[in-house]
Amino acid sequence: MREGHVGARTTRRRRTEFCPYIAVSTPVAAARGVLTHRVMNKNGTTTISDGTGAIEDRIEGIKESVKGFVDKGGQRVDEIKTRIIEVKDQAADKGSAFLDKAEGFIKANPIKAVGLAFGIGYIGMRLFR
What's the pTM? Predict the structure, then answer.
């Protein structure tokens, strides 16, 4: 802040020459010679468009990069889905193998199986009572 202007803020105003169709948007743009065109819309408002189309090019570039990210994300999701399906199938196979083993043990040793089930049930009742 300058001396004598305690608490005061200074602002810079953009300088544009009056012309209803062509205006220089910023001092930097004026130095570069970039002109913007004001276009009157049907509803009475004006829009400013860049004559070079640089903004549209940047938007298209951003769109393409976003599409690339979305495609990579979709591929990654597909990889994760297939991995989850593989793990689920492996778990189902292991569970099925364990049940087959248990069924074979019960058929081979029915008295031991009943005694084992009774013992596990008794211990469980004592623990959770």
Answer: 0.42
